[in-house]
From TrEMBL:
It comes from Streptomyces coacervatus. This is Family 2 encapsulin nanocompartment cargo protein polyprenyl transferase. PROSITE patterns: POLYPRENYL_SYNTHASE_1. The lineage of its organism: Bacteria, Bacillati, Actinomycetota, Actinomycetes, Kitasatosporales. Keywords: Magnesium, Metal-binding, Transferase. The keyword Transferase applies. Belongs to the FPP/GGPP synthase family. Transmembrane segments: none annotated. It comes from the Bacteria. Residues 1-22 are annotated as: Disordered. Pfam families: polyprenyl_synt. InterPro entries: Isoprenoid_synthase_dom_sf (IPR008949), Polyprenyl_synt (IPR000092), Polyprenyl_synt_CS (IPR033749). Gene3D superfamilies: Farnesyl Diphosphate Synthase (1.10.600.10). Residues 1-10 have a biased composition (Basic and acidic residues).
Length: 361
């Protein structure tokens, strides 16, 4: 363990460009192997659902003409394939492509539904599906993607497909519970949500699928039950670190890179992790933030967004989130070391974890 942690630390403190290049190469290979499986699955949908799904993935414009859009980073399918390779070699990686596609379909099912519930109008630098096709059709397209995901695993002859399908189905239930908790918290007052509650919600809403992705890769590698659970734990901790950084970016990120308007989470009065940390800090800035959050945002008031972001920062929300993200990554490395004790074999998983938690915008 000590050797792993030393080498992992060296990996994380090496040049960010090298880490980013390794992760970028993994993500590019993942898209090349998984996208054909995704497209084949989506092409099997009825025309109305297919059109919305292709638009959501960025492969078509709203009028159905081809588009060279952004289908997302493919982090979750990359984790499936990289975990499979780390524990089972290249053969396991090739066998896990369907499982990787299934995880990506589930992820996009959640995005379609979340955008409707959160009333988000922009994703991947274009209007969200519900704003183009309406609430009902966006929800139905999301339902179809979830069905496709489980269908891919049901049709997969690999012996791990049954346990993988059961695990993914259980994960979907956890994702729904996490989203329910998120929406329920949004109905409460600014000081009525605790840090423990929001951390539990974030693990269910974000960490669960990232953990499941890693666990599915381990299953397709024929790993032991202990190693499967260790990789699930690794993914959950890395996923929580990812969410912490994502929430920081949601407040202070550059909209030219995030694809969302500046301060969108603050305008929506989202109780994100940094905001709840700030609200519960007991500082004068926390009281100021609570006052700001108690009043609906008036569209176009950029000064108010700036004041709200400053209040979160002065109340310690930004620093807390960044420290927590580093702590969760340290825990993730410990979990990874239990399943993949050789740092060289774990390098791909570490590169992906570093990639998603070292974004600055």
């Amino acid at each position: 363990m000590a050797e792993f942690m030393t080498e992992a630390k060296q990996h994380s403190t090496g040049t960010q460009s090298a880490d980013g290049q390794e992760a970028a190469a993994i993500l590019e290979r993942t898209r090349a192997s998984v996208d054909p499986e995704l497209r084949a699955a989506i092409d099997s949908l009825p025309g109305s659902m297919r059109r919305i799904a292709l638009y959501h993935f960025g492969w078509e414009h709203a009028d159905g003409t081809p588009a060279a859009g952004n289908a997302g980073k493919a982090i979750r399918p990359a984790l499936v394939l990289t975990a499979a390779a780390a524990l089972g070699g290249p053969g396991a990686l090739d066998a896990a492509v369907r499982a990787a596609a299934a995880v990506e379909l589930v992820h996009n099912f959640t995005l379609l539904h979340d955008d409707v519930m959160d009333r988000d109008t922009t994703r991947r630098h274009r209007p969200t599906a519900w704003t183009v096709f309406g609430d009902a059709d966006a929800i139905l397209a999301g339902d179809a993607l979830q069905a496709l995901a489980l269908g891919l695993l049901a049709e997969d002859p690999h012996p791990a497909s049954g346990p993988a399908a059961a695990r993914l189905a259980a994960c979907v239930v956890e994702l729904c519970a996490g989203q329910h908790a998120d929406t329920e918290m949004e109905r409460r007052g600014p000081g009525e949500v605790t840090l423990d509650e929001v951390l539990t919600m974030a693990e269910a809403k974000t960490g669960a699928l990232i953990g499941c992705a890693c666990a599915l890769g381990a299953l397709y590698a024929g790993a032991s039950a202990e190693d499967v659970e260790a990789l699930d734990a690794f993914g959950r901790e890395a996923g929580l670190a990812f969410q912490l950084i994502d929430d920081v970016i949601g407040i202070w990120g550059d909209p030219r890179r995030t694809g969302k308007p500046v301060g969108a989470d603050l305008a929506a009065r989202k109780k994100s992790l940094p905001v709840v940390a700030a609200l519960t800090s007991g500082t004068p800035a926390a009281a100021e933030l609570a006052e700001l959050y108690a009043v609906p945002y008036e569209k176009g008031d950029e000064d108010e967004i700036a004041r709200t972001a400053l209040a979160v920062e002065r109340a310690g929300g930004r620093d807390w989130a960044q420290v927590q993200a580093a702590d969760r990554m340290a825990r993730a490395m410990q979990d990874l070391a239990r399943a993949v004790p050789d740092p060289a074999e774990a390098g791909g998983l570490l590169a992906l974890a570093e990639f998603v938690t070292r974004r600055s915008s």
